[in-house]
Amino acid sequence: MVLLGSTGSIGRAALDIAERFNLPIETLVAGFNSDLLNEQIGRFKPRRVALASRAAAEKTNFPNAKYGEAAILEAIEESESDLVVNALSGFCGLRPTLTALQRGKRLALANKESLACAGAFIDASKIRPIDSEHFGVWYLSRDRAIERVILTASGGALRDLSLAEAENAPIERVLRHPNWSMGAKITIDSATMVNKLFEILEARWLFGCGAIDAVIERSSIFHALIAFKDGCVTAHASPTDMRLAIAYAIMGELNEPIAGEIDLFNLPPIRFERIKAERYPVWALKETLLKEPKLGVVLNAANEAALSRYRSGAIGFGAISRLILDAFDRFDAPPSSIDESLDLHGEAYRWAMERNV
């Protein structure tokens, strides 16, 4: 396989699956963590390596390690493998998604921003999702007629703080996710509920269903529920281990345990809670995005700008949501092509980087 984002949490889990099932790694692509990448190079002996920057590439123990977006796209284009696992984080994952699909590769996708920003211009039938929520929907549906999809959310690290405390929560508090160990971006997105908006957009394009909602389920044992046309509601539950979704996305089928079994006699109390815009202001955008999902590119652009400003200390946590809501007031015309989507992303990002909040 070609693995994009090998040093992130999804990438590391994908390598665990590759090692367990003896799947060869043709290409490793990483961001800036050259130390971990060097360990992976020693373990998996890839034929190609690419990184985000020249400085990171110069620290790798690999001859002719390349760097930059062009090198990553070239690695996909020249690969012999028919499988690309895209576990890159952020908008930088979109062009690799487009390139993989244009080259006729099978795509196991963990990069939420690809479908959130450009789902209207991507053939989602060629994609196998890695998200646990979308894996749950896929696992349950198997071509049955879906009436409504319900995704679950943990509520993020600030779910029990008062609104006043959450307003200026320091980043070290936001990064203490109650259930998962993930990268900084997705952990912050979980606290704002932006991550769940991304997943709703993904579900819209992956399953062709316009009736999509989400609820908070604190244990993260239930990942998705489906209401079927016949009136039944079915839930997907599994331990909190991303390797299950990754294994199915990579191999298609699985006939041995990956994540272990749920201990029914030691489950925490299970309850479902409404997601309220009072605590998660961006949730007010859910119906707008379902009605006009092409505006997901505005959501992502404003969010990436807001996260950059928050992580640098320029704005507080509460300003992330305000900046995103302001961006939807400013940019309300959906793009009509992939090129327009790329242009709109750049314009909205620049605007959000300069906007006073």
Task: Tag the structure with descriptive keywords.
globular, 16 helices, 12 strands, alpha/beta, Rossmann fold, 5-stranded mixed beta sheet, 14% strand
List the helices and strands and how they pair.
Elements: E1 2-4, H1 9-20, E2 27-30, H2 34-44, E3 48-51, H3 54-58, E4 66-67, H4 69-78, E5 83-86, H5 94-102, E6 106-109, H6 112-118, E7 127-129, H7 132-141, E8 146-153, H8 163-167, H9 171-174, H10 184-192, H11 194-207, E9 212-216, E10 222-228, E11 233-237, H12 243-251, E12 273-274, H13 286-291, H14 296-311, H15 317-330, H16 338-354
Parallel strand pairs: 1-2, 1-5, 2-3, 3-4, 5-6, 6-7, 8-9
Antiparallel strand pairs: 8-10, 9-12, 10-11
Number of DSSP strand runs: 12
Number of domains: 2
Number of helices: 16
Q: In this structure, how is the largest beta sheet organized?
A: 7 strands, parallel
Helix content: 40-55%
Report on the structure:
The chain contains 16 helices and twelve strands. It has 357 residues and is an alpha/beta fold. It has two domains: 2-129, Rossmann fold (3-Layer(aba) Sandwich); 132-291, no CATH class. The strands form two sheets. The protein has a seven-stranded parallel β-sheet with strand order 4-3-2-1-5-6-7, with helices on both faces. Strands 11-10-8-9-12 form a five-stranded mixed β-sheet, covered by helices on one side. The radius of gyration is 20 Å and the shape is globular. It starts with a strand and ends with a helix. The model has no long low-confidence stretch (mean pLDDT 93).
